[in-house]
Amino acid sequence: MNAALPDPAALATRIKAWGRTLGFGAVGIAGIELERAEAHLLDWLARGFHGDMDYMARHGRKRSRPAELVPGTVRVISVRMDYLPPAGADPETVLNVPTAAYISRYALGRDYHKVMRRRLQRLADRIEAEIGAFGYRAFVDSAPVLEKPLAQQAGLGWIGKHTNLLAREAGSWFFLGELYTDLPLPVDGPVAAHCGSCSACIDICPTQAIVAPYRLDARRCISYLTIELKGSIPEPLRPLIGNRIYGCDDCQLVCPWNRFAHPAEAPDFAPRHGLDAVRLVELFAWSEADFLARTEGSAIRRIGHVRWLRNIAVALGNAPGSTAIVAALQARTDHASALVREHVHWALERHAKHAATGCT
């Protein structure tokens, strides 16, 4: 610990100002006591809601005990950064065009991990220039960190019924990042929740993954199914996915607080390669080389080409039948991956049934 820290309150004020200068929408300081969040996490794990995300349990209580993850930690500097693209196709319009591919808005631009980590490092460098060497580690969804409870304790917002962080002045279209530090800074208090009786996010969820207020069964969540899940998407859930091929934003699109959301200031989050509104058939034709080239520097690359094709095959199976769609699917029936072949055959069978019954 930096025992000689002069005027912690004044330093905390300067840290917040530096963070805003670096492009963070808000900066807050949290303590490291997360007992309630830990109990919630353990209950969530016990119910099996994490699905195949074994890493959620692998680190034990380090996720909810910052000082065990990074010895010496006494405070967490929590930051948020807006990511909603200021330009590009309207998300609800894309969702209503079943032959178009819907990609979660956070993944349209540059990989946020790299963008935020660089800025967090610059914030740490600025602190060090002011007070000298100090202990810290920067995290951006890259370690066992309970980022939303920490952000809540830092006063950046409250956890909504959809389990995302919400801010009255900024909605929920933002990323979170943290600096674990040994600086004994004054902490900010949590803000009150303002969801009230609203259940819009629960009602809109295509797969009913929000099984109760503040409780998400990830096994039903489209973001989990299209990003985290490595194997076969359960057949009963496939028709509910619609044209969402990477993530899902429905609970955010319907949230009343997002009328106060701010567009991203960072040009890094602008849509690339027209992915904000592109035809499913076009994406399904990408070779692995195409996929790697066009997702370079993007969060999308993490799922790989096989899961990319799996997801698009499901969306094509949900789209209205056409010669182009059936031909695109048939071109992948002999794909080297059994996972791709399975989902392609499901999609083709779906179109065959619709054709036989005269449905579209």
TrEMBL record:
Cofactor: cob(II)alamin; [4Fe-4S] cluster
GO molecular function list: 4 iron, 4 sulfur cluster binding; cobalamin binding; epoxyqueuosine reductase activity; metal ion binding
Active site per database record: D141 (proton donor)
Pathway recorded for this protein: tRNA modification; tRNA-queuosine biosynthesis
Residues where tRNA binds: K230
Main location per the UniProt record: cytoplasm
Signal sequence bounds: none
Ranges of residues in domain 4Fe-4S ferredoxin-type: 183-215
Catalysed transformations (reactions): epoxyqueuosine(34) in tRNA + AH2 = queuosine(34) in tRNA + A + H2O
Keyword Nuclease: no
Annotated HAMAP family: QueG (MF_00916)
Name of the protein: Epoxyqueuosine reductase
Biological source species: Acidihalobacter prosperus
Lineage, opening ranks: Bacteria, Pseudomonadati, Pseudomonadota, Gammaproteobacteria, Chromatiales
Name of the encoding gene: queG
